[in-house]
Amino acid sequence: xxxxxxKRQDYRPTSPPRPISVVHPVVVGxxxxxxxxxxxxxxxxxxxxLERPLLVVYVTSSGVYCEPLTGQIVGLARDxxxxxxxxxxxxxxxxxxxxxxxxxRTRRGHAARELAAVAREFSADALVIGAPRHFWHHVAxxxxxxxxxxxSCPVIVVP
Length: 159
What we know:
single chain; 159 residues; alpha/beta; Rossmann fold; five-stranded parallel β-sheet; two-stranded antiparallel ribbon; 7 strands
């Protein structure tokens, strides 16, 4: 039975994320969509079967946008601690995290590039993501399509 790693106990919002020692995890990209929920459940089962840690990654945009009426540049501060709490709650709702070593990371930037970087950084055994939600992702390109071409590990796309 593996202990569940919970970073909430010693989180310091002003310091950079603590380095974690995770070897060959199953990485899952999560954004709260229905297909991402399916991917999270699949990745948790896969990590359990392979006896590997599960690394849940939420990628947020840069948090900067232009206010359309005033033209003012607005930066949205995201609370990493509340995001990580939300991700752990989602995991608890979707699967039994018992016997599963779980780590959570939040990143800023382009979803596909950040997921590929995490997979490469931790030498992931697999990268699991949900299928694209919108038709135009199939036409213009999607996170899953980009990852299939550029990731350094197998990419599993869950509908």
